[in-house]
Amino acid sequence: MVLYFSGTGNSQWAALRLAELIADDEVVSMNQYLKNGKKIDVQSQGPLVFVAPTYCWRLPRSVEHWILESSFPAGRDTYFVLTCGGSCGNAAAYAEKLCEKKGLRFCGLAPVMMPENYLALYPTPSEPESRVMMENAGRCVALLAKQIKAGEKLDAAAVSFGDRIKSGPVNPLFYKFIVRDKGFTVSESCVSCGKCAMRCPMNNIDLKEGKPVWKGNCTHCMACIGGCPTGAIDYKSNTKERRRYYIMDDSLNQNGGGGRG
């Protein structure tokens, strides 16, 4: 079973391709489970493959909490595939600890480099650059699928002292000082379509008089900015001139149970 969380579509894209290559495996979107505050009781007999973006060199905190509160078959082989714009740091060590808490068998964590989508802090690459990155990501996903299908452990990457610092003490500071929604603004180009509220996996956006209002439970997934059809949403002045990035299939974002299997 492939379970994914995605803000602007990188991790969804990787998850769907992994599932297709691992003998058409079942796909489950975590987004709507998170949105509705629901857990899951997994009965799958195959390996578990969690696919998510890298948030400050680790699995997103919201995803980690959801895994802890959901039920999975004890002893199940468990893989983590994290999409990233740079590095996963020491994320594998924390994923392994998570597996220990849940009684799962940790089989490795691998990064998949994809176009940067964290508009609040970084610019996205150009369209030609993104295409090249997606081609490389496709080859990386194919290799990972082959290893997972064969029941092999994923290759462990070398971890530096800097990686340990970034995934360790820097991570909670990032959530404390950076991950906030007070910087979001909406311009007059907003057409009140409500897609930002629909796409928000944290159920953190309401529409008031047709305009989005953020409620203080943001995870900085960038779904609202990236997916706004008119580019009306910005984060402070950081995103004003930055290219929006969104490749998610909304039909899968809306059906919490996923759909192939």
TrEMBL record:
GO molecular function annotations of the record: iron-sulfur cluster binding; metal ion binding
Alphabetized InterPro entries for the sequence: 4Fe4S_Fe-S-bd (IPR017896), 4Fe4S_Fe_S_CS (IPR017900), EFR1-like (IPR047964), Flavoprotein-like_sf (IPR029039)
Domain 4Fe-4S ferredoxin-type: 182-210, 215-238
Coiled-coil segments: none
Keywords per UniProt: Iron, Iron-sulfur, Metal-binding
Superkingdom of origin: Bacteria
TM helices/strands, residue ranges: none
NCBIfam families: ferrodoxin_EFR1 (NF038196)
Name assigned to this protein: 4Fe-4S dicluster protein
Organism whose genome encodes this protein: Cuneatibacter caecimuris
Lineage per the UniProt record: Bacteria, Bacillati, Bacillota, Clostridia, Lachnospirales
